[in-house]
Amino acid sequence: MLVQCGFDEAGRGPLAGPVTAGCVILPADFPIELLNDSKKLSEKKRVAAEAVIKEKALWGLGIVDHETIDRINILQASMLAMRRAYDMMMLDFEKWCASQGISPAGVQISAITDGTTCPDVPCECRAEPKADGKYPVVMAASIIAKVARDRIMTEYDKTYPQYGYAKHKGYPTKAHRQICRQIGPSPIQRLSFSY
Prior knowledge:
- This protein is α/β, with parallel strands linked by helices.
- It has helices at about 45-55, 65-70, 75-90, 95-100, 135-160, 165-170, 175-185, and strands at about 1-10, 20-25, 60-65, 110-115, 125-130.
- Strand 1 (about 1-10) and strand 2 (about 20-25) form a beta hairpin.
- Helix 1 packs across helix 5 (about 135-160) and helix 2 crosses helix 3.
- The longest helix is centred in the last third of the chain and has 24 residues, at about 135-160.
- The chain is elongated and about 60 Å long.
- The model has no long low-confidence stretch (mean pLDDT about 95).
């Protein structure tokens, strides 16, 4: 039996904080009408969809911090986050298969990722630009990644309130660039990115 898993990341463009990635396999009866590219859903709809994904699907989340991003570059960090998401997902693979009434031994996984590069995972994988707007498994992965990263940045906002992370989530807004120039980078800034 062939099942498809989807990958997507959140946080390649920001100047601060981690990059996150989701990896998801959806059950046949998943309500896919809840899904879309995470950027096209309101925060309320993303959070609601995330709860259903976590309840019904097989999923994993990978996180790579700002220091690793600076050390290995954002593309490699995104791929590492995807591998971590896959590894986390596979921890529950047998249990999930049992819940679906299928034998894990007979399952072959095929992966699709948004973008142009596949992570180093032990299954067939293809990369497709804009996959997060076409395939429900990739949409679900994008929601897992985006909601998790937004939560992390909102938490960082409590520690570094002057940077406004709850508002812009570390993306290169005018206000974010301005505060970095005025008071210097925060401790979670990606120093390999320009301000």
